[in-house]
Amino acid sequence: MLLPPGAPTACDSSTTAPTCVARIGGNTLRKHNIPVPVPTSTLDCHAYLVRRQGPSQAPPSPDQHPRSTHLGSLGHEIGTYSHRLDGRTTIPTTQHLGGCIDDELDQLSKRLGSLRVAEDGQLRYYGATSNMHLLNEAPGPQADSAPFCGYDADTCLAQAGVGHTVPRELEDHLIGLYFAWENPFIHVVDEDVFLNTRARTLSQSTTDPKSQSPYYNQVLVNAMCSIGSAFTDRIILELPSPLAEFFGRRARVLLDADMDSPSVATVQALVIMSAHEAAVMRDARGWLYSGMAMRLAVDLALHMDPDPYVKKGTMDQHDVVARRVAFWGTFLVDLGWSYYVGRLTMHINLDGVTVPKPSHKSGKSRAWTHYTDEAIQPFNEPAPRQYPDTIDHVLEHQVSLYVIMAQLQKIFNDIKLHSRGIVNSSTKKVTRDLIHWRQSLPPEISTESIFQSSITLPHTLLLHMQYHEVMIFANHPLIAGASGAMTTDIREGCAESARAIALILQIYKQQWSLRRMNIQGVHMIFSATLVHLLLSCTSEDSSTREAAVNDLKVCCEALKELSIAFRSATRALDSIAKTKEKWQASLDNPDMDTTLKTYFQVQQPISDPKIWQAVDEVICQEQNMHQSDPQLDDVSWLDKVDGYAGDDC
């Protein structure tokens, strides 16, 4: 507490201990020109550290310090602190007289804030303007701020119509499918940390919120199961169908209470839930969940370098791994959503991110398991095959690729770039950066490895598909061409990448089948399909047109097969069909000189019926061959669910 001017600041010299001295600010000290007395105990300053590290880490007693220090010395200490500020939490460890005061002044001078224990017991980030960064920890939890207990959760699930008992064996299976097919490319959960925490949590009988880990909760479990359900062909008669919607609804119900005291698991759950919402075409909710995840990631300071807190004993290596994976996974999904819906992302500026980027050097040797429904079949079926995992290499270069994607997105959303020449000049730089990115890939995930190895893991193939999709956007004839005619290099650039995606799809299908693929693959295929449709309709060279039709067929077949897991793939097929009708009406009209004709350099109307017939056969065949999924037939239970109001619990 700062004393008002003129207030007494110290006892007389006969006082045996400076117990009557209040903590004061530097300005007050300078005004009264007095030395700083020794605090009664430094334990007040070190309370949080002592609780974390135990009595053995208690600071030295006051009598180990000199009795006083002068303002000049204090000013030197302040200057030293200010010079090395980095926005991180500083637990006071100073050995000089004014340790506590120096720490307070250090806190006051921070620009970026630090981690503090909030009312719910979670470490949260508070910036300098919040004033909360001045506190070592917040007051104790309020009576109504604790998460609801297991009974209340079960009650709310039952009222929402999703209170069914889920067998542990089914949960484990769906989580296994999630880790095999979704998490490697949207890597937001560290598998070892999660599984170890899950085993420890399930072995405990208590439901006390204080004993819960920040890396595990039922929202996260049900979110994982919702995605895992998309990769199974099993039908569970005891549970509502579709399974993905059942588990997605459970996660949504539980999320309402979890938001009172969100943790890292909440961030991870929101990321996964956003993927589920994309799969079922609820884009508004998915976009919202992705944004919420990024906001909470900052709230929990996942964007900050945890190393100082490890040195102080606040975190251990498990915390470091779980938090780093959660942040960069959230970053990837947030930017991925902005491309998916074509909106400017709201993610934080990377200049303010201090958490280290993923690196294969910090990873460990691990194996990827080819996990499917067959893994739980009886009769002693062979165990799922395992392969050396490339996930650390993939994640490292996926982040660097997304940094380039963020640059491209800024170009498309910069309203000041009216000139087509400026846009093309900017996208050419992005193209050069993309080429350099591909050339810098290590042998484990290089382009050559895809064609020379007998097995390439799904997430490695998806990384290359992502690269080619971004290359399409950087050279996209429907984006980059603001006016005039499409240039040859633009046409060839997007055509080459679209052909590459079709080729990678064939490799993926041959090695793994297209029944199981990360949800982001749908949009990559959609982007390539549009290019193949464009080339099929506008190419004057018959061989080019024939190759484009074949690639169009490959992509449409892939979307059809993926529609079993993701309804968004069906929407992509429908969009392709409608786009074809629109382009045909414009390009095949001899009496209309349309902008589309001018841009695509179509000199004569495309009157050859064989061209449109070939395209029609491909698109219509895949639309008509879409078979009904028994898990999508009966959704009557959703009528009750949609009337659920979480606040009533």
UniProtKB/TrEMBL annotation:
Q: State a single Gene Ontology molecular function.
A: DNA binding
Q: Show where the Xylanolytic transcriptional activator regulatory domain sits.
A: 286-364
A Pfam family matched in the record: Fungal_trans
Q: Which domain of life is it from?
A: Eukaryota
This one is known as: Xylanolytic transcriptional activator regulatory domain-containing protein
Upper classification of the source organism reads: Eukaryota, Fungi, Dikarya, Ascomycota, Pezizomycotina
Against CDD domains, the record matches this protein to: fungal_TF_MHR
Task: List the GO biological process terms.
Answer: DNA-templated transcription
Q: Show the segment(s) annotated as Disordered.
A: 53-74
UniProtKB keywords: DNA-binding, Metal-binding, Nucleus, Transcription, Transcription regulation, Zinc
User: What InterPro entries does this protein map onto?
Assistant: Transcr_Regulatory_Elem (IPR051615), XnlR_reg_dom (IPR007219)
